[in-house]
Design goal:
507 residues; 5-stranded mixed β-barrel; 60s Ribosomal Protein L30, Chain: A; fumarase; alpha/beta; 4-stranded mixed beta sheet; 32% helix
Length: 507
């Protein structure tokens, strides 16, 4: 009967979380490489190149793939013959491992967990507690599967109870249409079918932990009903033309995973949870012989893809920019930004807008006149870094603040991720502003363009504080121009029509 030492358990959780923060799995890299080779949309191909380049850079630098290093979800399958040291508390051990991983001075990960989830929402500062699911099983091993689930993709989770005669594929495809690009496609769609409401959601989450194998499924001579459903959803989702980062293109989903469970005769519970371009999960076992030993992926796992800006990319000098200068920027146009802008996410926007509504001055150093704001919550720097990985967050969360920010601060525009809602687009058009996007899933690549960073306000908000970033050749794409035209509308529309003549292959 094996004895699992508490320290081995804790150290293994820490090692695994550090590992998945920095390394993509080889199956994901291969799937992205296939998507890059097939992609015909220049904008989507550029985004995939950034993601692949970022993946290799993060692995080489042992730094996070994405600034959002996720909320930790742990699945424990405990063999009934396994023993733990006297006094061992599994929940406490998991959270000790999370604490060590996220506060590791050599590679700190961003703490994103807040408690309570309503009201003050105070950051726990070490990303605890984890979400833990425990199952007792026969055997003499402890099986651990863990994920670090980013907020952007988790926020796009959906659940419905369909009629038994309804089509699951129809519901999934129609739901994906509404999800936009905030989940950072291309990625994996997890579908849970059956059981009860909570069981379907858990099935969907667990399905995302399975290896990418849609090509093998397509090649099988004998396909199960589940295989056929996966392939149908995969084909129809990719035919939507949403593409990488929602810019329009051939690949939106890299795979569709399905787990199912018996359900009540009157019910058809269905859950959909996406995994983003920074998909992070790992499985390992402990048998009492010591902590897990994780081997980094081989450099040969990555394709020979290195992102570089296209020759026609416009160079923009932010410090001399005026309102007139942005009027000829077009949706889909690539820019390289140099100069200084401020940052701010949900919590900072809330405070800024409250100050403006009360007629109070903004904090010293917070001047948005003729400047841009970047929606970001960076990772803390290490070594000679001025800032850690600093990719964009989902911009639609700031939509309700956009009118006030544009009308009261002299702001020229915003930089973020994914599409804007109509209320924000209307405000952008009304104030002749613009909205730019950086590539979600390329946080370490983006951070290399940041040459100076300092906190200027709301330091108590941690990663949500307002920073001043000075950048050099930071790559972005014009998403909404001053007339309210959006690449997230025109790009997918164009590619959905074009894609009708392009076979969606799985091999």
């Amino acid at each position: 009967m094996p004895l699992i030492r508490s320290q081995d358990f804790i150290d293994s959780i820490e090692s695994a979380l550090q590992y998945i923060a920095c390394y993509h799995s080889s199956d994901f890299i291969a799937a992205m490489a296939r998507a890059y080779e097939r992609e015909q949309s220049p904008a989507a191909r550029d985004a995939i190149a950034q993601i692949l380049t970022n993946s290799r850079m993060a692995a080489e630098g042992h730094r996070p793939l994405c600034q959002d290093t996720g909320i930790v979800v742990v699945f424990l399958r405990i063999g009934m013959n396994v023993r733990f040291e006297d006094g061992a508390d599994i929940t406490s051990m998991v959270n000790s491992g999370v604490h060590k991983a996220y506060t590791n001075p050599d590679n700190p990960l961003r703490a994103s967990v807040v408690s309570p989830p309503f009201g003050q929402r105070i950051n726990s500062r070490d990303n605890t507690p984890a979400v833990i699911h425990t199952t007792l099983v026969p055997g003499n091993k402890l099986s651990i599967t863990l994920a670090a689930k980013g907020g952007g993709s988790e926020n796009k989770s959906h659940f419905a109870i369909l009629n038994p005669s309804d089509s699951v594929a129809d519901w999934v495809v129609e739901t994906v249409k509404t999800m936009g690009a905030g989940w950072c496609p291309p990625g994996i769609l997890g579908v849970g079918i059956g059981g009860t409401a909570e069981k379907a959601m858990l099935l969907a989450k667990e399905s995302l932990l399975d290896p990418i194998d849609i090509q093998e499924v397509a090649a099988r001579e004998q396909k199960s009903v589940t295989d056929e459903l996966r392939l149908e959803i995969y084909r129809r989702v990719n035919e939507l033309g949403i593409g990488a980062q929602g810019l329009g293109g051939i690949t939106t989903a890299l795979d569709v995973k399905i787990q199912h469970f018996p359900t009540h005769a009157a019910s058809l519970p269905v859950a959909l949870i996406p995994n983003c371009a920074a998909t992070r999960h790992i499985h390992f076992e402990l048998d009492g012989s010591g902590p897990v030993d994780l081997v980094p992926p081989s450099p040969s796992d990555w394709p020979d893809v290195t992102w570089s800006a296209a020759a026609e990319t416009r160079h923009v000098h932010l410090d001399s920019l005026t309102k007139t200068d942005v009027l000829d920027w077009k949706p889909g146009e690539m820019l390289l930004l140099s100069g200084t802008f401020l940052t701010g996410r949900d919590a900072a926007h809330k405070r800024l807008v409250e100050l403006l509504k009360q007629g109070l001055p903004l904090p010293d150093g917070v001047d948005f006149h003729n400047r841009f704001i970047y929606y970001v919550g960076p990772v803390d720097p290490v070594g000679d870094e001025v800032v850690g990985p600093a990719g964009p967050t989902t911009s639609s969360r700031m939509d309700k603040f956009t009118e006030t920010m544009l009308s009261r601060t002299g702001l020229l525009g915003m930089i973020g991720k994914a599409e804007r809602g109509q209320v924000a687009i209307d405000a952008i058009k009304r104030h002749q502003a613009v909205y730019l996007i950086a590539t979600g899933g390329a946080a370490y690549l983006v951070s290399r363009a940041i040459k100076a960073a300092r906190v200027v306000a709301f330091k108590d908000l941690g990663m949500e504080a307002i920073y001043a970033f000075t950048v050099e050749n930071m790559p972005v794409t014009v998403a909404v121009d001053h007339q309210g035209n959006s690449i997230h509308k025109s790009g997918p529309d164009y590619w959905q029509n074009k894609i009708a003549g392009i076979p969606i292959k799985t091999t």
